[in-house]
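[User] Could I get a sequence and structure tokens?

[Assistant]
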Amino acid sequence: MQCCGLLYKLTRRFYRAMPSFPSTPTTAPSNGASRDFDFVQRLMHHIEQHGTITFAEYMGWVLYQADGGYYSEARGLGPQGDFVTSSHLCADFGELLAVQFAEMWQILGCPQPFQLIEMGAGQGILAADVMRSLAQDFPDCFAALDYGIIEKSSRLKRYQNALFQTWKLPQKPRWLDWDDIPHNSVVGCFFSNELVDALPVHLVEVSDGALQEVYVQVNQDSAPGRPFVETLAAPSTPALQTYFDDLNIDLSHYPNGYRTEVNLAAKDWLQTLSQRLQRGYCLSIDYGYSADRYYLPSRTEGTLQAYYQHSHHNDPYINIGEQDLTAHVNFTALEQWGEALGLKTIDFTKQALLLMALGLGDRLTALASDATDMASIQHAIQRREVLHQLMNPIGLGGFGALVQGKGLTSDEVQQPLRGWTVPPMTM
């Protein structure tokens, strides 16, 4: 089932008040084709020059290509767009993560500076919540803080800057490119919330027991609203077969037509990250599965989904540049690749357990005791529903939270991280 990723994408109630941002059009064209005709034409020209491209290259274009890609245009983020994240619901998500970051700083020996680098910060809400919470509750950690954001989209950078100015943060993050960060320099934590699911994936299919790859080509029939069609051919890289070999998955016995995804871009991302981390942690929060669940023979259509205005479907060839495309994360692959790159797996848990261990339960308990009149009771009910959404096991709470480490001493490794420690049961 794919409900962990689906239910949270469809959540629409009880959003936090946010500053106004420049609006982006979200109305679907009546024929289902992209409004950005020029962008589609450029993509068609690019494909015609090569004959075909892999689905991974197609996905990279429609999501990240300048002047038209979904994320480059910052389309569809937030309650009035195509999807929301945990940080859109309430400040608690960032505040609780701040508790964990402060503990990491202490375990690392209170380094100066302590670098927090968020990869893919969206509208900047999580960054703002984390920094405000550290400034208020962990002033010593905040005094050492060097908060960086790695963001490709210039438009998202403008959104983030507008939010930081509106909320008058005590410190403004720095925007970084990977090339700005020297190798083996970061002491602190790289972290992401729903980044890996949006990296371009290769689509593969089992045909007569053999591994084939999905390619995209221009539709010569020129069907209205259908500029591209798929074709199957041999894999573009031997890395695809190696990927399944390393997971001990033999696709030759899988059903004919079985289709799934391979996120090779995640390996490159981890390598880039590991090269720059000298000592500290990598925290990845996302929806996904272990390899044995991801590649069940019964999961014949994979996990690729498109999200448009809080609805979902499985057609990546409409609303081109205007809809989000995602695939679930294979956490087993992240762990295996990390180990090979020097990022040792420290622990894995679910978001619900992570947040409960960091104090979400205490916040729920306090709501009951603080409600003394009708207005506060109504507020408590709304707050309680939002907090329950963060821990719903078939929604946001079912997300995975993987923490990896590099350069840690044996004593530092042995110190348990609070978010991955099972909280005591109360009667």
